[in-house]
Fold:
Amino acid sequence: MWLRTACKLEFTVPEPTPFILMLRPRSGAQQWVARETYTLTPSVPVQEFTDAYGNLCQRFVAPPGEFSINTSSDVQTADMIDVAPGAPFDEVQNLPDGVLTYLLPSRYCDSERFIEMSRSIVGGVAPGYDQVAAICAWIRREVRFNPASGYNHMAASEVNQRREGVCRDLTHLGIALCRSLCIPARMVVGYLHGLAPMDLHAWFEAYVGGRWYTFDATQDAPRGGRVTLGYGHDAAQVAIFNQFGPALEAHDMRISVELLATAP
Structure:
């Protein structure tokens, strides 16, 4: 399927402010970017770099006054995600070197707190893909997905206590539970076609059966139509923008994902 994604951010900048953005999808095995626009108003010099996770990042200094960011991309992506019931657990000693880091606790995924709980959730389930599926099913039953949740930047253990959160929070909990079972898991941020209310979205991937698989505890069924912007250990690495200096929030943010009838 072909999707057209768009993101608009508007700021009132009080003083020259450094920004780092993560708003360009990268072509790869799961998506192909056929067209892009990326406009900063007013125009400023931009440098692009690839971070430690392979994400495309843009850095610049925004001048004082009204400042806007507009991006749009036409992307070919799968209309269904791969599922693999029965895919086996990968022994830690056999994992690729680059995957090992996703076993470790991180800022928002305090997996060391879930060792006993995760084992109770997946009791009697075959190790590997089926365990991750059981974790997602448990989160859907026990934790309320509330896009309007007022809690900010919760660690997985806090999400477990409050039993409510936005997509980022449910994703952190899923990652922490997986890592406590020695299943590598990483966070993904991007666009999801048909999401309501429309916004940027977070989900996670778990490494089982020798590859990464997509899991989303906010959705009742496996859904494709995803465009990835970034990967990381947790939300600390996949913010779509970071600014440095006095606190600054976008006073307008608009996200859209449109299904294209034909290839662009």
About this structure: The helical segments are 115-121, 129-142, 156-162, 167-180. The first strand starts at residue 2 and ends at 13.
